[in-house]
Specification:
Length: 348
């Protein structure tokens, strides 16, 4: 059978590199072109020596017509405001696109402009975009030509809270999400806030009340329970290369034990190989999923305060970006959902 030809725009960034790593090991796909404007003409291993003798193609400049003539699917791993300039033409030429940026995630009027400070993509293209939370929308993803891959924090949070919120066991308005991310979440371009001396042996809160994932999480929660929800969401930078943890707190509406919650989640995610539910008294760590597409979720019900804590961890570059994008490509092209993704976590 012919291999699916993939193009990666933003291949010199962290999530683009992770797409290269995953697609090199995918039995149904070949990488046809890698795009990075600032590295066009250079060989991949000249820019990234760790890929020497593994993949030696050259970076291309971005040319939408050239892309469309070569590939069966395009991944965009580019900063906000870039994919929305090329995806409308690619979609019109019939090329499925999987966008790792936030350009096509927010459906509400003016929301994208407000939170991302970029112009909204054309409405007729935006309405074709399907939110790529793989475990929740597999049929929609399978039939979509434009998949808006979720943000890393929304992936960890939504996988951790949707089952219990849908069940009406908790008061959604009491939800507080305390998120922590490793540094690769901020991409390869550096800044003072990402300086080793400032991040190492430190923890810093950032974008409080202003994080662009707030409307994404609220949009999904409100849609799932058909009621407007607002959340408190606090983000922190921690001294890890990869990894993300969301600790989430909610008031219980009925008396439940930790074990009853665990049973609910085990049954909810029974047929979802990338979601692992921790037993009572064990809580997940980012190291436990590093390099893999797993999302590990643990729980604790405090019967003194009648609150529940849900802890959800992912590798931000895998389930939070490239891993989920490949999972979505698998769904879209009819491959097994796990194809190319059954990688064990790198531990220790
Ligand atoms: N890092 C993460 O954990 C996650 C990232 N995301 C999202 O995925 C996207 C990529 O993130 P990340 O990999 O961290 O970013 P990086 O900053 O590491 O990489 C960005 C890439 O985009 C390319 N690029 C920049 N401007 C343009 C342009 N005008 N045209 C074409 N290519 C361009 C860059 O190429 P060049 O080097 O040539 O400039 C580079 O390859 C972002 O939207 C991010 O928010 C989503 C979930 C998690
Ligand atoms: C550590 C860190 O800075 N992380 C970034 C994640 C950015 C991201 O993934 O942005 P989009 O999903 O909107 O594309 C942040 O919190 O803004």
């Amino acid at each position: 059978m012919e291999l699916v030809k993939a193009g990666i725009v933003g291949a010199s960034g962290y999530s683009g590199l992770e797409l290269i790593r995953l697609l090199l090991g995918h039995p149904e796909v070949e990488i046809e072109t890698i795009v990075s404007p600032s590295n066009a003409g250079f060989k991949l291993n000249e820019v990234f020596p760790h890929l020497t003798n593994i993949q030696n193609c050259e970076f291309d400049a971005l040319d939408v017509n050239d892309l469309a003539s070569k590939v069966d699917v395009v991944f965009f791993a580019t900063p906000a405001g870039i994919s929305s300039q090329s995806i409308p033409s690619l979609i019109e030429m019939g090329i499925p696109c999987i966008d790792l940026s936030g350009d096509f995630r927010l459906k509400g009027n003016g929301l994208y402009e407000e939170w991302y400070n970029h112009s909204s993509p054309p409405a007729q293209v935006l309405e074709q975009a399907v939110y790529g939370l793989s475990e929740f929308y597999p049929e929609e993803i399978a039939n979509a030509n434009l998949i808006a891959n979720p943000g890393c924090y929304p992936t960890a949070s939504l996988l951790g809270i949707l089952p219990i919120i849908q069940q009406d066991w908790v008061d959604p308005s009491s939800l507080i999400i305390d998120g922590k991310s490793g540094l690769s979440g901020a991409g390869r371009k550096t800044s003072l806030a990402a300086h080793f001396s400032e991040v190492n042996e430190n923890v810093s809160a950032y974008k409080l009340g202003k994080h662009q994932h707030i409307p994404e999480i609220e949009q999904l929660l409100s849609m799932q329970i058909e009621k407007e929800i607002q959340v408190t969401f606090a983000t922190h930078l921690i001294p890890l290369t990869r990894g993300m943890m969301c600790s989430m707190y909610m008031n219980l509406l009925t008396e439940k034990t930790t074990n009853q919650v665990i049973e609910l989640y085990q049954s909810f995610y029974e047929n979802h190989p990338f979601i692992r539910i921790m037993p009572e008294g064990k809580w997940p760590t980012p190291k436990g999923v590093a390099g893999s597409n797993y999302c590990d979720i643990g729980f604790s019900v405090d019967d003194r305060t009648n609150r529940i804590t849900v802890i959800s961890v992912i590798d931000n570059l895998m389930k939070g970006a490239a891993g989920q994008a490949v999972q979505n490509m698998n769904l879209r092209f009819g491959f097994a959902e796990t194809e190319g993704l059954m990688l064990s976590p790198v531990f220790p």
